[in-house]
Amino acid sequence: MIKPFPEVTVLQDREGVNHQVAQLLPVALYMTDQDGLLTFYNEKAAELWGRRPRLNDPTELPFCGSWKLYHPDGTVMSHAQCPMAKALRYNRSYKGEEVCLERPDGSRAIALVNIDPIFGPDGKLEGAVNVFYDITSYKAMEEHSRLQASIVESSEDAIISKDLKSIIKSWNHGAEKIFGYTEKEAVGRSVTMLIPPDRLHEEQEILGRIYRGEQVKHFETIRLTKDGKKIPISLTISPIKNNRGEVIGASKIARDITESTRLKQQLQENAEKLEQLNSYKDEFIGIASHELKTPLTTIKAYLQLLQRELKEETQQQFVTTTLNHVSKLTRLVSELLDVSKVQAGKLAFNFEDFDFDELLKEGIQAIQQTNQTHQIICEDCPENTLIRADRHRLEQVIINLLTNAIKYSPNADKVIIHVTKEENNILVSVKDFGMGIPSSELDKLFSRFFRVEGLPPNIQGLGMGLYISNEIIKGHQGKMWVESEWNKGSVFYFRLPLS
Q: How far apart are CA 176 and CA 152, in angstroms?
């Protein structure tokens, strides 16, 4: 037995069916009468306009439900100039035209309109229908793609895409410039035409990483040009994925590093030559310093003998002045010899246990005897501070710091030493009240042969004392540093482990 059809709701008129269908459409749609008065619109149109205009209302904006309209170039479009107005005016269709819509909240969208006039049975114009949709995202992607294409084409680097069989799919101007092949010659061929036979294994390794979704960055290798020339290049390769996230190919950026490779090699060669010359210089300083010490010792001995024999005070003064200059020269030669030893890693230390307080007093006494302009004050100096160190080398550090403190504070009258005994260390500070050191130069102060800029011409030196002192402290597993302000003085610190 055949069952009857189920009952269905029958719409009373065709217009109602059309309106119901229009509401289900995924695109915006609206209709007007022959005068441009809105007679119908669907929900998509209201969403795109950002408003719900009243139907069959002569006070509403005519021809379109948009708040404001603009031409594609951004100039204002009156509603009387819109495609719907022209369709009604000239009784013709307008397809594929772009219009910029502005919503009441100020946001904008680009719409693609398709308008057809509606004629009655008598052929008389009754209105028009506009089916339009938002292409804002599409236009943005189109502009982005155009911009990317422009960047790719204008790039000096070779930008190439290939599939997973290594077949070239795209080839920019940079690739043509670097490798010599035109786009027509390269596209459709295997990328292996650029790879030397002994490096073909690299392509398989790269493809393996691309299959795994990895990126290859700054891979330096050799590739072939059209004329067979080998050139060094740097490769960056990224996987290309489809909308399902599957790897379907790779994009490759190749940069010709011929010039940078040449400069790098030249820089390496220059560095090696400089290192060799530097070693010759250090060797020369070491030999010269060692050879100079013997005659200086002899000169000093004979001057001391001469000083005992001379009776006249003027002659005695001449010899004393000469001895002072010989002592300065001897210290300079010793410092040069120490620098060469540091550079050669041969600065030796003779460790022994001794009282640091006694060493400090001897150093202060030695400097105080020859410098009457400044009083050297030792604050809170602890007694019986046993330390294991090289006595001679630590005395060298103390004398250097005290000498510098006096030299670089010519308008002051004192230098303050402070000694603090910590749990496992001893901390020593030497404070002067001189010209100070600019903050920009503090980090270079312990460098070899460095001197602060802008010093008065009467303050001389070669910039070796602090360098040697710092190396001595480091050789004792200690640390040296400085705190200073320009025109306010400096405080030099060093910390040493106790025995």
A: 12
Q: Which residue has the higher pLDDT, 114 or 338?
A: 114
pTM: 0.43
Query: Which CATH number is 262-344's, of 1.10.287.130, 3.30.430.20, 2.40.160.20, 2.30.30.240?
Result: 1.10.287.130
- pLDDT tens-digit map of 454-478: 666 556 666 778 888 898 899 899 9
Q: Which CATH superfamily is domain 14-140 in?
A: PAS domain (3.30.450.20)
Contact criterion met (CB below 8 Å) for 380 and 419:
yes
Report residue 37 as tokens.
């008065």
pLDDT tens-digit map of 63-83: 999 989 999 888 999 999 999
Domain 14-140 and domain 155-256 have a common topology: yes
Measured CA to CA, the distance from residue 119 to residue 91 in angstroms comes to 9
Residues in the chain: 499
Q: Which residues of 481-495 are buried (b: 16+ CB within 10 A; e: fewer)?
A: ebebeeeebbbbbbb
Domain 352-497 matching CATH 3.50.50.60: the answer reads no
